[in-house]
Write a structure and sequence with these properties.
- The chain is of the alpha+beta class.
- The chain has one domain: 3-Layer(aba) Sandwich (Protein Transport Mog1p, Chain A), CATH 3.40.1000.
- A 7-stranded antiparallel beta sheet has the order 4-5-6-10-9-8-7, sandwiched between helices.
- The longest helix is centred in the middle third of the chain and has 12 residues.
- The protein is globular.
- The chain starts with a helix and ends in a 7-residue tail after the last strand.
Length: 222
């Protein structure tokens, strides 16, 4: 598998846009003051065969993402056998496949005043780069917060674009309050625009994302 400079470089910078995050920092100042603590958790994400109320696509397994003790929200989604839990640290996991496509899952405490403001800011910034555009989206409420599920196109200049090529994103952003603390949960599914196979998988996987067992409404995926 080709090395992905996106993960360590451009993906980290994408957090400046405030959209679906690709690494657990929220600004360049945070990146300077909070160095990544790689290897905090020895555990990997775990598969489950228990029924969950969502339809798991054939050949995939529902997986609970290992995000560490600092994340109070359980995140799960369906993954196929070609997706590997590659790396991560407290509040962050990276899944990779044989293509250049990747999935990142983040959970961290946020300083927005409310879950609504957190989600609204993500909406404003997600496709702010020229040439990037939303294709479809859906939103709703969940226990303690709000969420936004989105599918869109990313221009090659977008900091989240895979290997600086035109790309597509399927993502979830949620703000959830737990014991008076607001957490941002973000799931990014990223693939180059010509990676049809990965995009078809993402269309099946996005509706399986659950937060604390709660099913999220997905947009029309085309």
């Amino acid at each position: 598998m080709k090395t992905r400079p996106l993960v360590a470089g451009a993906a980290a910078l994408s957090l400046l846009l405030g959209g679906c995050s690709a690494i657990r920092v929220t600004s360049s100042e945070d990146a300077a003051s909070k160095p990544a603590q790689v290897g905090i958790s020895d555990g990997q994400s775990t598969a489950s065969s228990e029924p969950t109320g969502v339809t798991i696509p054939e050949g995939m397994t529902e997986t609970t993402v290992e995000l560490g003790a600092e994340c109070p929200v359980e995140v799960s989604l369906a993954l196929g056998p070609d997706w590997v839990d590659s790396s991560g640290y407290e509040g962050y996991r990276l899944f990779t496949s044989d293509s250049e496509a990747l999935i990142t899952v983040n959970c961290y405490e946020d300083d927005e005043a409310s879950a609504k403001e957190l989600v609204d800011k993500s909406r404003e910034r997600m496709f702010s780069t020229s040439g990037s555009a939303k294709v479809s989206d859906a939103s709703g409420s969940l226990d303690g917060g709000e969420y936004w599920v989105v599918h869109g196109r990313l221009s090659a200049e977008d900091l989240r674009a895979v290997d600086e090529e035109d790309s597509t994103i399927f993502g979830v952003v949620a703000g959830v309050s737990v014991d008076g603390r607001l957490f941002k949960i973000a799931v990014d599914m990223l693939a180059q625009a010509d990676d049809v196979q990965a995009q078809e998988q993402f269309k099946q996987m996005l509706p399986t994302v659950r937060l604390d067992g709660q099913v999220l409404e997905s947009p029309e995926l085309r």
